[in-house]
Design goal:
It is a single chain. β4, α4 and β5 form a beta-alpha-beta unit. The model has no long low-confidence stretch (mean pLDDT 95). The protein is of the alpha/beta class and 240 residues long. It has a single domain, classed as 3-Layer(aba) Sandwich (Rossmann fold), CATH 3.40.50. The radius of gyration is 17 Å and the shape is globular.
Length: 240
């Protein structure tokens, strides 16, 4: 795996989860010169459409479009993710290899158990990876964990929204790589159907979050800790 640490690592329970929730942000980070990566916890073998083999090809194509330097799969069982000691140890090993500064996780609530439990598992592994006596390898703990909250109907107001106006078309190209999952679909993951094609729903969601920061497209994120402001005068988004 990595010889030097990643700047940003996005973790998803299934191939295509990262594309749906934070692909624009990963692309923007790559545009800014940061080293980015993706860790899929499962191969998505329980999906109703396509197959794990097809999704692996699609995931590689999407990663190329997003400019991520590394994409790995933890090999956990789809539809059976659990926050077990064994799984925590497996993720700690991967995190110590990749050494990410920032980790993007699924929102900690979700209708799919894998999304909820995958988020909890990865969050715990991020902490344990910093313990010197926890398993083999050099300790490493990410500086920041943020939660991608696209499509969440039960979520609180975003802590921040990333402007992805310049990255949106590439985000959609990455999502369209998963044709086996999304072509002719009206729902996916935490995206509830509205009667419109899934691609239209994604655009509507990203336009909504972009509007919150007065931009064309945006991706929302949540942090459990309060964010620091260093320069009050430079705060963005006009109140009036």
């Amino acid at each position: 795996m990595a010889d030097t640490g990643l700047d940003v690592l996005a973790i998803g329970s299934h191939p295509d989860d990262v594309e749906l929730t934070c692909a624009g942000t990963l692309i923007k980070c790559a545009d800014q010169g940061y080293r980015t990566g993706i860790l899929d916890l499962t191969a998505g073998e329980m999906g109703s459409r396509g197959s794990a083999e097809i999704r692996a090809v699609e995931a590689a194509q999407a990663a190329s479009i997003m400019g991520v330097e590394q994409r790995h799969n933890a090999g956990l069982p789809d539809a059976a993710i659990c926050n077990s000691a064994e799984n925590r140890e497996a993720l700690v090993s991967i995190l110590r290899d990749l050494r990410p500064r920032i980790v993007i996780l699924p929102f900690p609530r979700g209708r799919h158990p894998d999304h909820r439990l995958g988020s909890e598992l990865a969050r715990d592994a991020c902490f344990l990876a910093g313990l010197a006596r926890f398993g083999p390898g050099m300790p490493h703990r990410p500086t920041k964990v943020v939660y991608a909250m696209s499509f969440r109907e039960d979520a609180v107001k975003p802590t921040f929204v990333v402007d992805i106006e310049a990255q949106f078309e590439r985000k959609m190209s990455a999502i369209r790589c998963f044709a086996s999952q999304f072509d002719d679909a009206v729902k996916a993951g935490e995206a509830f159907p509205t009667g419109q094609p899934l691609y239209g729903l994604i655009e509507a969601q990203n336009r909504h979050y972009g509007s919150l920061i007065r931009r064309g497209f945006g991706e929302p994120f949540f942090t459990e800790e309060t964010m620091e402001v260093d320069d009050l005068v430079q705060l963005g988004v006009s109140t009036f």
